[in-house]
């Protein structure tokens, strides 16, 4: 693909602001990225906007340029004048920038880098390391997809960039041509000092030569007809489709790589471009599944881990495309899938209550059953389960709004940090403390009341609340310590899923053990009087550990994984998504259907996202999810 400066003078700054040479030029080919990187380094302010029509390879060129700049950064740094900073290019989807929260580019960069690269927040680097990198000009943001944000927000982004960029700040951005032109018109001025380049469409001869290189030395008769139709332009729709890198790749993937007969390309399909495009996108998923066989080899980054059913894969991706509609967002965040489920708040509250009632009730039943028999055990289980379940379920219907947390359980070299976190962490307010104390006091007090009497019930309730609040503070301290990243911490979709799962499950240990010890006294006070100290202590441990584990799972922050599991199971029962959602997303990434940017997935090709989002769903579309500012 060839690239050149745009001929639309209205969308680009004057040449003297873009480069020092008298005759500004920028010509290059995607297969000679070294030359393009050199021209980028030669721009006065190193700012570049890559525009083009859908499927022209804008993001591909941006990623190629990013990799080349990274590979030569050390060498280029030595060649520059002393003191000049060559920043590190970082790919960032523009769809994640909420101007209402972060009006300046630098503010958003600090927030986004801290989330996508947790190692930058490691204690070893000190506080403010991310801010220092951004303020010092060490980050070159590669902003992908201006056209993928809401139309009314695009001019605001241009204005925010012009207000944020200093004389030494560099930038690379991608956008569809029409959307970028309208954004510049809406902003009232071009992007300061940025060169704007556009691609030239592939000629039919170039497209035919590319396909011929992908075929056997002696192509089949059908392929000979397709190549001839391209070269003599007898099939207008075929030639127009093959004029873009995406269209050419679709033809190669669906027919050349899979071994399918391409005869239909010169038939009725070759007459209408829209029909041909829709056909190629429909056949893309089964073609990739056929050609990319599963592999467990760690080096096989472009092969799925398991064989996927083409129809099921299409159905699942269609749900995601419609749950994350391209008009709102292109970011597929696993923790936001739950928001596509109607009444998710009520479902999570109900499930949370059932989990609490079941585990807590079983613990209470076993504990009191040891001392007082089966009847008292059943009564205790029902009482504790109902009260505890309702208190937890009603109070935690906001889980669907939570984002995943980072977890690091490495002890080596971090014991002192753990001790400091436990010592310093306190419940933030009296209201928060009461929210922790009252459910425990009420549930334990009523449980003791119905089994042993009023006096013991009151005593148990009065001791239970403050004791449990203390254990909460200890548990929160441990969680705060676990959230501290290290220099090796990474943030991917799967790592964020596992980290939040770890934070959710680990709370059960610091909650369960202290609360179990406390219950040795509380339950032992009642059951020990009737059955002896040994049974009382054992009863307290059984009951306390069970209740503590429940509180650990359901209280506090970090329920994105738990809500994700609940939502994915609900959607799996409906056939909308697979049971193992993260495994599916990873395989879709390996198949080349999705791409990963930090912990977020996107459709690798916007055309596929648009195509699947337009598929009739056969019913009401679930509540869409996207950037909070667009809801």
From TrEMBL:
Domain NACHT: 48-214
Keyword annotations: Membrane, Transmembrane, Transmembrane helix
Keyword Zinc-finger: no
Pfam families: NACHT
Transmembrane segments: 347-372, 378-400, 436-454, 460-482, 503-524, 530-554
InterPro entries attached to this UniProt entry: NACHT_NTPase, P-loop_NTPase
Superkingdom of source: Bacteria
Descriptive protein name: NACHT domain-containing protein
Biological source species: [Actinomadura] parvosata subsp. kistnae
Lineage per the UniProt record: Bacteria, Bacillati, Actinomycetota, Actinomycetes, Streptosporangiales
